[in-house]
Every structure is written in C-alpha cells, then in structure tokens.
Amino acid sequence: METREILKKVQSGEMTVEEAEKFFRREPFQEMGYAKLDTHREVRSGFPEVIFCSGKADVHLLHIFGKLYEEHGEAFGTRASQSQYELLRETFPQVQYDPLSRIIKIEKHGKAREGLIAVCTAGTADIPVAEEAAQTAEFFGSRVQRVFDVGVSGIHRLFSSLEVIQEANCIVAVAGMEGALASVLGGLVDKPVIAVPTSVGYGASFHGLSALLTMINSCANGIATVNIDNGYGAGYLATQINRMAKG
C-alpha cells in the first residue's frame, strides 16, 4: 500500500493507528533468501518495484510476482517469455501477457491515466521496444499516444501526426538503423525527447550501437538517450516528466 492510502484508511477508520504504525515500522524490504523485495520503493520514488523476468528461475519468479501482487494489488514484469506467462497463469489466472512487448502484469481496474506521452517509432520493427515503453508508462498512470512508422525514409508521414506529438508532455523516439528520428523530433518540439536506440538494422548497425551513437551525438537540443532496446527505462523516465508537467 502507498503511504497516502494508509493515511486515508486511518482517517476513515478502516485502519487503526496501531496497525498503521506497525506497517511503517516494517523493514523497507522483504527478505526471501534469493531476493530482497524493495517494498518501500513506491514510498520513496513513487514507483513500485518491477520484475525483470528474463533469466529468473521459475520458482523465484513465481514467488516474487506473488509477493509484489500481495503487497501492491498489482504486479508488472518485463522481458517475460511465453513459458513464464503459462507458469504464472496457473497461479494467477487474471495475469495478462503481451508477446510483442513481452510485458506481463496484473493491473488494478479503473486506473486513471493522466497527461500525455507520445511514443513514436521509425519503423514497424521498432514497435516491440516502443510497446514496452508505452505499456510501462500506462501502467504507471500516464496517457499514451502511439505514433508508429514515421521514420526519416518517409518524413512526410511524421508531419501528419505532428500536432498530437507537439501536445505531449514528453516524446519517446524509438529507432534502429541510423537512429535519426530522435534528432528530427528534437528539432520540432519544445518538450523533452527520450531517444531509444533499437537493435534493428543490418551488420554495420552493430546491434543498435550505430543508432545509440547517433542519438548521443545529436545536434538537436533536449534529447536524452537510454540504453539499446531499453523501452522500460524510457517509459519510466517519460512518466516522471509527465507527472512533473501535470503538476
């Protein structure tokens, strides 16, 4: 539970002062032997802990996911496989999985989404990373507008969506190949642009390094670059900016 939620429950009489005091006296993590769940992360940063699923043992993933769901009433994981989804579904039949972004989650119903983030891709091959960014931002309470396949090989396609992009509080630019989309967007908007290089491209793209270097060396202002294929990091940062913008 969030701090504000606990205080509201005390105010309404749903929770006693002693129960609230017991909650706040707990250690800020849960010791699980193989993991230390950061259950107070949302109190400190405004975002609950998220699970990086890839490489986790089945039993560890199952228990971590369950503990976070128990703690927050929802849980969110990135880079999950189909087999991990099937494993979790046996215990949590309500779990949702998107094989494109590889996000797995249980989300609270009726969650409000505020502000606006525009998530743009250069091509359709960049969509899996873009969806990771978009769905991360949506899980954390941001409204997202997707603008896909507007890369520089057909720049006229971008201009048809420019109005909604310029209205956003933050823009996420996802591109592989030479990664020029972030520079183009940086020159067209007055809001921060988060550049996400992807590992899409032929041999000399070096699995995204070419796009990464282009984005880091952009001559446009207001661009910050995250790691190759790091849609989650972009969605998280975009949400922080979006929250600040809406005040």
Write the SSE topology:
Layout: H1 3-12, H2 17-25, E1 30-31, E2 36-37, H3 41-45, E3 51-52, H4 58-72, E4 75-78, H5 82-91, E5 96-98, E6 103-106, E7 114-121, H6 127-139, E8 142-147, H7 156-159, H8 162-167, E9 170-175, H9 181-186, E10 193-197, H10 209-216, E11 223-225, H11 231-246
Parallel strand pairs: 3-4, 7-8, 7-9, 9-10, 10-11
Antiparallel strand pairs: 1-2, 4-6, 5-6
Helix pairs in contact: 4-5, 6-11
Task: Give a quick set of tags describing it.
about 250 residues; four-stranded mixed beta sheet; 11 helices; 11 strands; about 40% helix; globular
> How large a portion of the residues is in β-strands, by DSSP E?
15-25%
Q: What is the averaged pLDDT score?
A: 90
- Main sheet, how many strands, which sense, barrel? 5 strands, parallel
Unreliable residue runs: none
> How are the strands of the largest sheet arranged?
8-7-9-10-11
Principal-axis shape equals globular
Query: How many β-strands, per DSSP?
Result: 11
Distance between the termini: 23 Å
Short description:
The protein is built from eleven helices and eleven strands. By secondary structure, the protein is an alpha/beta fold. Helix 4 packs across helix 5.
Structure commentary:
The chain is of the alpha/beta class and 247 residues long. 41% of the residues lie in helices and 18% in strands. The chain is built from eleven helices and eleven strands. Strands 8-7-9-10-11 form a five-stranded parallel β-sheet. A four-stranded mixed β-sheet has the order 3-4-6-5, with helices on both faces. Strands 1-2 form a two-stranded antiparallel ribbon.
